[in-house]
Design a protein that fits this description.
The chain has 1021 residues and is of the alpha+beta class. Helices cover 31% and strands 22% of the residues. The protein has 31 helices and 39 strands. An 8-stranded antiparallel beta sheet has the order 13-12-11-29-31-32-39-34. A 5-stranded parallel beta sheet has the order 20-19-21-22-23, with helices on both faces. Helix 4 runs antiparallel to helix 6. The radius of gyration is 32 Å and the shape is globular. The two termini are 22 Å apart.
Length: 1021
């Protein structure tokens, strides 16, 4: 990310608070007492006691509505409760008809209103009624009859209500925190986002100046107001009926509105929370051989109310225990378990477990590990006999698409017969001096046969649809007569026969059967010749038994042909061919490292003297892809919001015309692999929470590390590992900056708010093949920002001006953003593209599929760069004016990189520790060291299965055998937790926190914002 000091545009109160949070970046040093048991006054052990004390202070801030509600309910003071609700919540009118349905209108519901401070009049009344009932009073919501004028209603609506952030933190309190943490203070510089308001207005005015009135579909707000349905509250104290009016702030407590001279009220109908909707998230992939279809990896469905105010951890867990992560290298991460884990800090473990979803472990090919596992399992006695019978060991090594290596082994007895039934635990693999974790695919003869079939319309019925499935069943049955554990895999292809056969040659199979009529639509590429000549043998099944097309194929490639116009005869011929083949008994695979170096693989049979050396080199051919995953996708669906799809990595099907334009390549598989090594977090809000609440929840996630951390302080390593294994919470600090409300959200002229809900994706992609690590932020188009104005008109322009703030924030936070790409560029509106034929021709030539949908799609306003130097665009809703900056990868946000890379041969925890320091995200996001609480139980079962099949012990379960490396890794993790919010090597810790201030109120004031950052931040060295 960008390297600069902490920016903000807010008042001095906020500055004091945040200065204390980021002070460590320029000179707070770790106290030697941190990792010892210490007793610091009443604050408890650092840092958790200090953080708890911070939470207490934050809960007393005027804008901490949840905390104030709790205190006021406990006080049982109806007057204070009424004034709190009346004066602290911004009231929301309807865009369509203002207050026509003021009696019943809801927007966010009471729980979300307490988070963000935005509520309809009916929701405000419900909040007060609930507080009074909880405090022990009898209370109900009523509708009051008034004669309030429309102008007066507008005066009530268009003003600022939500209180300022101002926790009561004294200098004495700060000195106490510093002493507890053992820190020393040095100078820290702060900066604002330069000319924030001016940049926002300049961007908005530039775009508005190019939009003709006829392009705007805004409908004026109907000036409706139901003066006889004003929500108020009646409660009873000492059997006396009392009133609590909360709509007009000028009405004193205990009175009805003065225009309600006759005290006309009637009971309100039952309150109804906003209508629920189901939200479904799905992770899926595509691979080389079947790029036309997606395979679901994991999917989950939630009620929107379950997601709001929470995060969804989207991870590919590396299937290593903490013990493994502390002792094994990054290159040994060979399979992954996809998960969608809900994080709700206010709910217990059983709640989030029921709402978290775990997929099956997968390989880099997307193959489900446990699904195709075929080795037989022998008793200890049988294994002992088998090992004693071994007299020699032979083997072959087949390097495949990097980093995959296939190994075929033949342990033999005195008669030269292969000894079967050994497990992976009986073999020891060492590659260039590095111990290797292998995966046994089989330990008995179990042929893997790939049956491909052409799906073109020219194929006969017998080899299409149910016909090919029946053929597969019969063929598999025939083969299993000789080999009971044989497997046949079905794969459809198009008429690109050379490409399809090339992909098949890289599939992990022993034989290829390809049913085709020979009609071919692609060209032979000589650069792939070595791949065609390697791999499993191929039999082409000539479905019409005609020579014309097959003759042309033979001009370029060698293959065996079987006449296949009669399926019964065909199966008999296949059997004859299979009977002549020799299949391996033991097949192992593993992930290697250092693609360009010579390798020497040593294979030993444990407990014997038998070992072999197998030298190999990876083929230096970028065309060798195997059947690797080439694309990862996240799909979000919900009623009324349509489908939102994000390409997380690799192949972009929407840019591949008819699926034949873009060929799979190494870059795609590298992007996918790096994404698997990273992690994602999704966050959901109606509108951003108030600042004090957001910071409180951030601290609460840090507190989730307390049990294991303090056990480590006490040198109780088994206890620390036990607690760590229960999972932790995570709140990427970048959310503090990017998920915040707009500046001047409510003014005397307008109020702007999201009609939908705000959603974002944070994606961390560690460099592995690439020398740079990347973090990206993506606003999903779910917010539906709109503006209600005093006049009822001009909402489009108001919304565009307000949401332009987010574009400026993106431009400041990230190296790559739509703002930085498009700043100063000549822009063309898609609606006007017809007047610039020369540009349109040039754009279509540059990238037809990309620009075609932009220039011809008229449902949204889109601005493009006429120089074609960037594919980023501005996208504007034609009705409400909401502005999104869209990057070339079609995400809405920004991204930055850092010069840091995972090193294949270094220990997992240590390598990721360096990366999270650079990325400023926390270890939990990557699933390293710990894991989301919601999937601990089910993931533990998965790990037990995997380790049992691999004949390995779960290191983390062996609490008595902790070695020095594990102890060191725990220390590194503890240090990362302590300094999680101060990683300042990129100037981003302070930035992430105090950029909270970037679009908040800019008025001067006293000094609280620079006061707390030191309470979180120290330098571990």
């Amino acid at each position: 990310m960008k390297d600069h000091s902490t920016p903000f545009v807010s008042n001095a109160s906020r500055r004091d608070f945040f200065k204390q949070l980021v002070l460590a970046g320029s000179g707070l040093y770790l106290s030697p007492l941190l990792f010892q048991s210490c007793n610091t006054e009443d604050l408890g052990r650092p840092p958790f006691g200090v953080w708890e004390d911070m939470i207490k202070m934050l809960e007393q801030s005027p804008d901490h509505l949840v905390g104030r509600r709790k205190v006021l309910v406990a006080s049982k003071n109806p007057k204070a409760m009424t004034e709190f609700v009346r004066d602290s919540f911004q009231i929301l009118p309807s865009k369509r008809d203002f207050y026509k349905y003021i009696a019943t209108e809801t927007q966010y519901g009471t729980e979300m209103a307490l988070r963000c401070g935005l509520a309809t009049p009916r929701e405000k009344a419900e909040i007060l009624k609930n507080m009074l009932v909880e405090a022990g009073f009898e209370a109900k919501v009523v509708w009051e009859t008034t004669t309030i004028s429309l102008d007066k209603v507008k005066d009530i609506t268009f003003r600022q209500y939500i209180p300022e952030f101002d926790p009561p933190i004294s200098n004495r309190k700060m000195r106490k925190w510093h002493k507890a943490l053992g820190v020393t203070e040095t100078n820290r510089s702060f900066e604002t986002i330069p000319d924030f308001q001016q940049k926002t207005e300049a961007l908005a005015n530039d775009l508005l100046g190019q939009i003709k009135e006829e392009y705007i579909r805004e409908k004026p707000t109907e000036q409706g107001f139901d003066e006889k349905g004003i929500p108020s509250v009646v409660f009873y104290e000492n059997e006396e009926e009392k009133y609590a009016h909360i709509f007009d702030p000028e009405v004193p407590f205990g009175q009805l509105h003065p225009t309600n001279e006759n005290k006309e009220i009637k009971d309100a109908r039952e309150f109804k929370e906003p209508k629920e909707q189901d939200i479904t998230a799905t992770l899926s992939c595509r691979n080389v051989m079947d790029k036309w279809n997606e395979t679901t990896l994991v999917s989950g469905t939630w009620k929107l109310s379950e997601l709001l105010g929470n995060q969804l951890q989207v991870q590919f867990l590396n299937n290593m225990t903490f013990g493994d992560q502390a002792t094994k290298s990054v290159s040994q991460i060979s399979n992954f378990t996809p998960c969608l884990a809900l994080q709700d800090i206010h709910k217990d473990v059983s709640y989030v477990e029921k709402r978290s979803f775990l997929g099956e472990p997968i390989t880099l090919e997307g193959e489900k590990v446990l699904e195709r596992y075929t080795p037989i399992v022998q008793s200890e006695e049988e294994l002992t006999v088998a090992l004693n019978n071994i007299r020699s060991l032979e083997g072959k090594v087949y390097p495949q698409a990097f980093p995959k290596v296939r190994l075929e082994l033949e342990p033999k007895d005195a008669e030269g017969n292969i000894v079967g039934g050994l497990s992976i635990g009986n073999f020891e693999l060492v590659d260039n001096g590095q111990p290797i974790v292998g995966w046994m695919k089989q330990n008995s003869i179990s042929p893997k046969i790939l049956l491909m079939y052409d799906t073109s319309g020219s194929m006969p019925k017998a080899y299409r649809g149910d016909g090919i499935k029946e053929f597969l069943t019969q063929t598999e049955g025939m083969i299993r007569e000789a080999y009971p554990s044989a497997q046949v895999f079905l794969q459809e292809t198009d008429s690109t026969l050379y490409t399809s056969l090339l992909n098949g040659k890289q599939f992990d199979a022993d034989l290829i059967l390809y049913a085709t009529d020979g009609e071919n639509s692609d060209e032979y590429d000589t650069s792939y010749e070595s791949i065609y000549n390697a791999g499993p043998p191929a039999i082409l099944l000539n479905v019409y038994n005609k020579e014309i097309h097959y003759k042309r194929l033979r001009e370029n490639i060698d293959f065996t042909e079987i006449a296949a116009d009669d399926q019964e005869t065909t199966i008999a011929e296949i059997k004859k061919y299979v009977d002549q083949l020799s299949f391996p008994t033991y097949v192992l695979t593993y992930n290697s490292f250092e693609e360009d170096k010579d390798h020497k693989l040593i294979v030993k049979i444990k407990g014997t003297e038998h070992q072999i050396e197998l030298p190999y080199n990876f083929p230096m051919n970028d065309n060798l892809l195997g059947n690797r995953m080439i694309g990862l996708y996240l799909t979000i669906k919900g009623k009324g919001m349509g489908t939102i799809k994000r390409v997380l990595a690799g192949y972009k099907p929407h840019l591949d015309r008819n699926g034949a334009h873009i060929k799979p390549n190494r870059q795609m598989i590298h992007e996918v692999h790096e994404t698997l090594l990273g992690g994602l977090v999704m966050s959901f809000e109606r509108e951003a929470p108030t600042l004090s609440l957001q910071l409180t929840e951030y601290l609460q996630t840090l507190l989730s590390n307390r049990e294991w951390f303090e056990a480590y302080q006490d040198n109780n390593i088994p206890k620390a590992l036990e607690e760590l294994g229960k999972g932790t919470l995570s709140y990427p600090q970048i959310l503090l900056s990017m998920m915040q409300p707009l500046q001047d959200q409510a003014t005397e002229k307008a109020i702007t708010y999201p009609k939908g809900f705000r959603t974002c994706i944070i994606k961390a992609i560690p460099g592995y093949y690439n020398k740079k690590t990347r973090i990206s932020f993506d606003y999903l188009p779910t917010s539906e920002y709109l503006s209600v104005t005093r006049s009822g008109e001009g909402g489009f322009r108001e919304t565009l001006k307000k949401t332009a703030q987010l574009a400026i924030l993106e431009g400041h936070m990230f190296d790559d953003s739509a703002y930085s790409h498009l700043k100063g560029k000549p822009l063309l509106l898609n609606m006007d593209s017809g007047s610039d034929e020369q540009f349109v021709k040039k754009a279509y030539k540059e990238n037809f599929l990309h620009y075609y949908s932009i220039l011809l799609g008229r449902s949204e306003l889109k601005f493009v760069d006429t120089t074609l130097q960037t594919k980023s665009i501005w996208k504007i809703d034609r009705t409400n004016g909401e502005l999104y900056g869209i990057l070339p990868d079609e995400t809405g946000g920004g991204g930055s990189t850092t010069e840091e890379q995972l090193k294949a041969l270094q220990v997992v925890v240590q390598e990721y520790s360096k990366l999270v320091a650079r990325m400023n995200l926390g270890m939990t996001m990557t699933g390293i060291g710990t894991m989301p609480i919601g999937i601990v139980a089910t993931y533990s079962i998965t790990l037990v299965k995997l380790y049992a099949l691999a004949s390995q012990a779960l290191i983390i379960m062996d609490a008595g055998g902790m070695d020095e490396k594990i102890n060191e890794a725990l220390g590194a993790l503890a240090c990362d937790v302590y300094k999680e919010i101060l990683y300042s090597s990129m100037g981003r810790i302070g930035t992430a926190i105090s950029t909270l201030e970037n679009i908040n109120a800019a008025s001067p004031g006293n000094s609280t914002i620079e006061k707390l950052i030191a309470g979180f931040s120290v330098s571990c060295s």
